[in-house]
Design goal:
The complex is a heterodimer of chains A (288) and B (366).
Chain A: H1 7-10, H2 39-52, E1 59-63, E2 78-81, H3 87-97, E3 102-108, H4 109-115, H5 117-125, E4 131-136, E5 139-140, E6 146-147, H6 166-169, H7 175-180, E7 185-192, H8 196-214, E8 219-225, H9 229-232, H10 236-250, E9 254-258
Parallel strand pairs in A: 1-2, 1-3, 3-4, 4-8, 7-8
Antiparallel strand pairs in A: 5-6, 7-9
Helix pairs in contact in A: 2-8, 3-5, 4-5
Chain B: H1 4-7, H2 18-30, E1 36-39, H3 41-57, E2 61-67, H4 83-88, E3 99-100, H5 105-122, E4 125-131, H6 132-136, E5 167-168, H7 175-195, E6 198-202, E7 209-212, H8 215-230, E8 235-240, E9 242-244, H9 248-255, E10 260-265, H10 271-279, E11 285-289, H11 298-328, E12 348-351, H12 353-359
Classes of the chains: A alpha/beta (288), B alpha/beta (366).
Chain lengths: 288, 366
């Protein structure tokens, strides 16, 4: 657990030295997530960033299908449920008719990188002014731990009991790198919930992805590498070690592209032609 | 649309797919915007998923299906073979959506306003179904635009400023809670069935035979009725305008006095099942339809009507003979044949009584 060092939260006149306070936008209840699951951390980071940027009162969020389907039980903002994979299209509809709203999607890897591949690609290609949070734990956690498109080679799941075999089941998809090729994408980054320093970096990425939208940029995506102790058959501690080892080798951390808000399209998220072809597509060079 | 909508300060989006389109509509509608999506049969199949979600979560939207011939990729000719899909459900779950079927371009314009009114009044998706002929036809229209009143919805997602957060969803993992949600939906559908039935009748005052048809098929039936009357067969038209709720009660009333009913469709016979359910065997129900993008000609329909007429006459003759035999053995004479003319002025559009009250409009205005 990291301490929230945000000054507006950390200092309150007359109070004992307050070092962390739960953001109001985070509901006062325990989550349904399994012990050790990373969703709770990502929820909290989102809540902190939204509070720091004063976003909750004009946020319209889109909930996924998957373990985070009940995200609206934990984040006190307006929420609409999307069919599996369709969150980016639902968010597009919201964006186009509510230019003033802060539009947020929250999806897992089964949702975003499998059934919803077309929707995420085209929302990104259109440069929709949307902030997309993508929690990648490499497995279908909710439905019983089946192989996802993001499952590592050799990883055992209930539908790849001998380990993922590339010859039979193909290769893991680095979808954030794929999306980063699109000029409509203003910002794409990959962080991790594996330890406190990484969580701090992940929060900075989420904040940047929110600011891109606030400042009129195009599509902004943050992939949060997360764990699934139950689905992976590990203890929470083992799963975090795994996350720092083989997972990060397959999915390098860092900002994949940041085209800057200035060149992004304005208006209702219609990045016609995107932030111009003059801006080179930044290759997926990991930061660390 | 692509040109006109931005001129009006409105939004037009060409989606990447039907899945994209319908879900954009879901998102926009969740914020209280008035949204319409259009597609043709195979595209509607792709939209079935989101239709179920919108019905379950109470998201209003208008979906236009200009039906083409199926199944599969089928063809691009006109068809009414999506009747089952439109009226019996598209996606999964216990739900219905109102389905409006105009028979002319003028009526289509009129019914679009009705579609939005129904969608917003009942928080439901609404379908408007046409076919490839109406979708491409040109005909004179009397411009009568009606702008449905805009409401501030107490459920719309606008950002939780100064109020608790709102959630639009269909999921409920507690069976008892989900059943309650379903019961509420069924109550809504019962209310729609009571209040929002629309149908039209033509040439019914003295009709012995009733043609039941909607959309383009009703236009063909209208021509067939003229031809049949010229040959001495008194036929009239019963045209459902809402395919769901189906005007069952009204058709049942008519079937008490009709010699026979002939259903005409651009399909293998889909609506005819609802006709038979409404008629409950009170009179014979025949069917004539074409498939594959073909449209029945009026002469074909007259032929089917004559065949039905002949069959009915033979049956009636046999009944008369049997009755006469029975009658000969009795002292009291009683005709088993019941004939009466059907009430109602010609070319009249109807709506359920309650609907007139609920909408505050005169059903006869259209």
């Amino acid at each position: 657990m990291t301490l929230n060092r945000s000054p507006e939260l950390a200092t309150r006149p007359g109070a004992p030295r307050l070092i962390y306070r739960k953001p109001d936008v985070l509901a006062d209840r325990s989550t349904h997530y399994c012990p050790g699951c990373g969703h709770g951390i990502v929820h909290r980071l989102l809540a902190e960033v939204m509070t720091e940027l004063d976003l909750p009162a004009h946020t319209i969020a889109v909930a996924p299908v998957g373990c985070a389907v009940f995200a609206y039980d934990y984040l006190n903002v307006d929420f609409v449920e999307a069919p599996h994979g369709r969150a980016p299209a639902v968010a597009t509809g919201i964006r186009r008719v509510r230019p003033e709203a802060f539009v947020l999607t929250y999806q897992g890897d089964g949702d975003l990188a499998a059934i919803g591949t077309a929707e995420i690609v085209h929302a990104a290609a259109r440069g929709e002014r949307i902030t997309a949070i993508f929690v990648n734990n490499g497995i279908y956690g909710m439905t019983g731990g089946q192989m996802a498109p993001t499952t590592l080679l050799g990883q055992k799941t209930t539908s790849s009991p001998s380990g993922r075999d590339a010859a039979l089941m193909g290769y893991p998809i680095r979808i954030t790198e794929m999306l980063a090729q699109l000029p409509g994408v203003t910002y794409a980054a990959r962080g991790s919930i594996a330890d406190a320093p990484l969580i701090g970096k992940l929060k900075a990425m989420i904040k940047r992805a929110c600011l891109v939208q606030i400042e009129g940029g195009g599509f902004a995506l943050v992939e949060a590498l997360s764990n699934c102790p139950v689905g992976w058959g590990m203890t929470p501690q083992e799963s975090l070690e795994h996350l720092k080892g083989p997972v990060v080798e397959a999915y390098p951390l860092g900002v994949i592209v940041d085209r800057g808000v200035a060149v992004a399209a304005s208006g209702a998220g219609t990045a016609a032609g995107g932030p111009s072809a003059a801006v080179p597509v930044v290759a997926a060079e990991p930061e660390a | 649309m692509a040109r006109r909508m931005p001129e009006l300060g409105r939004v037009f989006v060409q989606a990447e797919s039907e899945l994209g389109a319908i879900n954009m509509a879901l998102g926009a509608a969740a914020t209280g915007a008035r949204v319409m999506v259009s597609s043709s049969s195979p595209g509607i199949s792709l939209m079935a998923e989101a239709m179920s979600y919108m019905a379950g979560s109470g998201t209003p939207m208008v979906l236009v299906n200009v039906m083409r011939a199926g199944p599969g990729l089928g063809g691009i000719g006109p068809s009414q073979s999506d009747y089952f899909q439109a009226t019996k459900g598209h996606g999964h779950g216990d739900y219905r959506v109102p389905v409006l079927a105009p028979a002319s371009i003028g009526e289509a314009m009129d019914l679009m306003a009705t579609a939005f009114e129904l969608a917003e009044r009942y928080r439901t998706p609404v379908m408007v179904v046409l076919d490839g002929i109406l979708g491409q036809a040109m005909e004179p229209v009397e411009l009568r635009f009606r702008n449905p009143e805009r409401h501030a919805f107490d459920w719309a997602l606008t950002g939780a400023a100064g109020r608790p957060a709102r959630i639009i969803k269909s999921i409920d993992l507690v069976p008892e809670v989900l059943e309650k949600r379903n019961l509420n939906l069924q109550r809504k559908y019962a209310e729609i069935s009571r209040q929002e039935v629309l149908w039209a009748t033509e040439s019914m005052e003295d009709a012995d035979y009733v043609l039941v048809a909607y959309g383009t098929a009703a236009r063909v039936a209208r021509s067939a009725i003229e031809k049949a009357r010229a040959r001495g067969i008194k036929a009239g038209l019963f045209r459902p305008i809402t395919l769901w709720p189906f005007p069952s009660r009204e058709l049942a009333r008519i079937s008490r006095h009709a010699h026979a009913i002939l259903t005409v469709e651009l399909s293998s016979g889909q609506m005819v099942e609802d006709v038979r359910l409404a008629v409950e065997g009170r009179c014979p129900v025949g069917f004539h339809g074409r498939m594959g993008g073909l449209v029945p000609t009026p002469d074909e329909v007259v032929g089917a009507l004559k065949a039905l007429h002949g069959k009915v006459e033979r049956t009636r003759e046999r009944d008369r003979e049997q009755q006469q035999k029975r009658h000969d053995g009795r002292s009291e004479a009683q005709s088993g044949l019941h004939r009466a003319v059907v009430d109602g002025p010609p070319e009249r559009t109807h709506r359920t009584e309650a609907g007139v009250n609920a909408s505050g409009r005169d059903g006869g205005e259209r």
